[in-house]
């Protein structure tokens, strides 16, 4: 047994719920052997709290099988990097990656998805922010249980409201009377979104989820032109009318070179809370087929359930894992696919090179 043979063995171990090995991720470092046993560091480019126990077991088994019973001391750390965005847009202090959650059609569950993905990412160990950009119907403060709270001001900036002590939340609803927003014109909408993003004091956010309004209007245009977006998630129901609009949203992102990280099919089946009977109210597999056509991951197929609707209305998205662990697990699996797709996106090295000015 030496550090090289241990590293080689570890490199071949498959990370749970993925087709990646520790070697693929260059996760293993600082392998040492002393009288206590084997010590090593594992570094990941995405959050892994949800699978660390299983991974630890795989490592223990592999080491024991190869080298016998040897105490193992594993230190896990995250190195979530900043990834590539559209060229020429200003970066946002304190935010590494922006994920836009979009749908073509309204009411398909985009806000529900945004809130639950944010909670899942946070449970997985990432630092998460949510920006509610749905000017015509902001719902994140309600869903995340911070309705009625106001961001504090500090040095001319706004400090996001904290949901469940860990998710940084900003919403147009904190700033404006959204009853008035319906009569806003394009430039005002664009201004509000930029103000929320650039004048908030984000605290080292790995993933900032932007909950967009439905459609492909002014907010989406601002997003594409002015905001450093790493990629987008498309939410749709399996229904044809929703899918047609979802494709429009996809086209818009593709035109501006914002990658699509995946499709999440919401309201795939209805599960009756009384008898558990399932029914495909909005058709079947539409989102799955859209994902296949686009060649992007299907992040999940989420059922329509009373518990989810109630959790969103009651502001308990943050404790859905206790109320309905099966549904929270589906969101966790979706978030896991999402962060893997994001990690495959090129890194942003633009800050490392000096600007070359030709005079
Ligand atoms: N999987 C689900 N199960 C139960 N209820 C759901 C589910 N997804 C969404 N809902 C409910 O459907 C309604 C619409 O969802 P949501 O507000 O997330 O949609 P949206 O696409 O963001 O809508 P908008 O067009 O207002 O932006 C909400 O009351 C929400 O609680």
From TrEMBL:
It comes from the Bacteria. The keyword Transmembrane does not apply. CDD domains: Mrp_NBP35 (cd02037). One of its GO terms (biological process) is iron-sulfur cluster assembly. ATP binds at residues 104-111. Binds and transfers iron-sulfur (Fe-S) clusters to target apoproteins. Can hydrolyze ATP. Belongs to the Mrp/NBP35 ATP-binding proteins family. In the C-terminal section; belongs to the Mrp/NBP35 ATP-binding proteins family. This is Iron-sulfur cluster carrier protein. It comes from Snodgrassella communis. The lineage of its organism: Bacteria, Pseudomonadati, Pseudomonadota, Betaproteobacteria, Neisseriales.
């Amino acid at each position: 047994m030496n550090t090289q043979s241990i590293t080689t063995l570890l490199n071949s171990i498959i990370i749970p719920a993925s087709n990646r090995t520790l070697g693929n991720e260059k996760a293993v470092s600082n392998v040492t052997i002393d009288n206590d046993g084997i010590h090593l560091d594992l570094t990941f480019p995405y959050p892994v709290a949800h699978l660390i126990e299983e991974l630890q077991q795989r490592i223990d088994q592999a080491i024991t099988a190869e080298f016998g019973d040897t105490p193992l001391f594993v230190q896990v750390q995250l190195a979530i990097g900043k990834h590539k965005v559209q060229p020429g847009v200003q970066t946002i202090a304190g935010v590494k990656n922006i994920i836009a959650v979009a749908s073509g059609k309204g009411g398909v569950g985009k806000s529900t998805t945004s809130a639950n993905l944010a909670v899942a990412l946070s449970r997985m160990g990432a630092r998460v922010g949510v920006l509610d950009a749905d000017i015509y119907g902001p719902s994140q403060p309600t869903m995340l249980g911070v309705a009625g709270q106001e961001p504090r001001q500090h040095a001319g900036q706004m400090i996001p409201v904290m949901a469940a002590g860990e998710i940084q939340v900003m919403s147009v609803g904190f700033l404006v009377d959204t009853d008035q927003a319906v009569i806003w014109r394009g430039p005002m909408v664009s201004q509000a979104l930029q103000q929320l993003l650039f004048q908030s004091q984000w605290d080292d956010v790995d993933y900032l989820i932007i909950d967009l309004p439905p459609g492909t209007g002014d907010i989406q245009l601002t997003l594409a032109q002015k905001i450093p977006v790493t990629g987008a998630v498309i939410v749709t129901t399996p229904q044809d009318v929703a899918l047609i609009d979802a494709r429009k949203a996809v086209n818009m992102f593709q035109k501006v070179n914002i990658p699509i990280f995946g499709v999440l099919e919401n309201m795939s089946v209805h599960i009756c809370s009384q008898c558990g009977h399932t029914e495909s109210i909005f058709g079947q597999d539409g989102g799955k087929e859209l994902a296949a056509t686009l060649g992007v991951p299907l992040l999940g197929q989420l059922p329509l359930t009373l518990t989810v609707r109630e959790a969103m209305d009651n502001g308990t998205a943050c404790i859905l894992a206790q109320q309905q662990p099966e549904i929270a697990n589906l969101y966790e699996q979706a978030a896991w696919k999402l962060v893997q797709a994001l990690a495959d996106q090129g890194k942003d090295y633009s800050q490392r090179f000096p600007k070359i000015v030709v005079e």
